[in-house]
Design goal:
The strands form six sheets. The chain has a five-stranded mixed β-sheet with strand order 1-2-5-3-19, covered by helices on one side. It has a five-stranded antiparallel β-sheet with strand order 6-7-13-11-12. Strand 15 and strand 16 form a beta hairpin. The chain is globular, with a radius of gyration of 19 Å. By secondary structure, the protein is of the alpha+beta class.
């Protein structure tokens, strides 16, 4: 590849080479990415992807990295960070938020404008785009309940999807199949700031009481029917099981915590122990919620190769 021709439209400050991915996921785990790009517009996202296809380079779009595990061997391609797609505005009870914003930023903006409906998501370390792709949820709520429209990149074109066209279901959407979310409209309800602040505090308390702190990727496994994977893992006595610096949280069995120096190999080995025991003891095959990206995982959702 001729280096001068590859992504030459991005300034050097927004195209980094040989970057450790540890600081770009909530797990704080991962090898080196060959390139890390920071587009500031929808058009730049399109141009980066077109360049990747032209030069036969793999790419992966990353939000907050809250459900992503990059392998120790790194990523031989372009990780496209959407952090600089961070515009937000309001019209009536509709908030339009670009994909790179965090859900927390949207909640804060909504509170300032006396709009309610997303308080349950307080503390979720997810970007707007990532939350919609995975239909993030907790405490009986999910993001689809507040989505009005989604603007996504499909086959090189920006396409608008109304909520009923998004194929939302449990931890799934139409965008799970390599469509790139660029902007989301949230339809919220008018409420007093006092009411919203009270709800936010309630959900913060719930999260503190129920979920562990530390470096993690959130829930590791999806529910099994109506039963939480954490309950099954807990009943099999796997809380506290440790491989290297990766441990099954003693507080919530569906969380794996990086105690500081865990590698992806540690996490993957620990996941295999969990999955093998659940399959042997309960005859259940757990479904991973975490996206695993690496040289031996080329078929995972979100890893796009021309």
């Amino acid at each position: 590849m001729c280096k001068k021709k590859f992504l030459n439209f991005l300034p050097k400050s927004r195209l980094l080479e040989n970057v450790s991915l540890k600081n770009f996921t909530t797990f704080r785990i991962g090898g080196v990415s060959k390139w890390l790009a920071f587009p500031k517009s929808f058009n730049e996202v399109k141009r980066i992807i077109n360049h990747c296809k032209k030069f036969n380079v793999s790419y992966f779009c990353l939000g907050e990295g809250s459900n992503t595990l990059f392998c120790d061997g790194g990523f031989d391609g372009v990780v496209i960070s959407l952090k600089k797609l961070n515009k937000i505005k309001r019209k009536g009870n509709i908030i339009s938020a670009y994909a790179g914003l965090t859900i927390s930023e949207v909640i804060s903006f909504a509170k300032t404008n006396s709009l309610s409906g997303l308080e349950w998501a307080t503390g979720i370390p997810a970007s707007v785009g990532g939350a919609v792709v995975n239909n993030a949820g907790c405490f009986g709520y999910d993001i689809s309940q507040s989505v009005n429209r989604v603007y996504a990149l499909k086959d090189g074109k920006i396409v608008r999807f109304w909520a009923n066209q998004c194929d939302f279901s449990y931890r799934h959407s139409i965008f799970s199949n390599s469509l790139i979310v660029l902007k989301v409209e949230f339809k919220l309800n008018k409420e007093s700031k006092e009411f919203i602040e009270k709800k936010i505090k309630e959900f913060i308390t719930k999260r503190i009481n129920l979920q562990p702190r530390g470096f993690s990727a959130g829930s590791v496994y999806k529910k099994v029917g109506s039963v939480s994977a954490g309950k099954i893992i807990d009943e099999l006595g796997l809380k506290g099981t440790r491989v290297g610096d990766a441990i099954v949280s003693p507080k919530h069995a569906n969380f794996i915590i990086n105690l500081g120096n865990a590698t992806s190999a540690d996490v993957l080995r620990l996941m295999q122990i969990i999955e093998d025991k659940v399959k042997t003891e309960r005859k259940i095959v757990l479904t991973r919620e975490i996206i695993i990206i690496g040289e031996s995982n080329e078929n995972n959702r979100g890893l796009s190769q021309p």
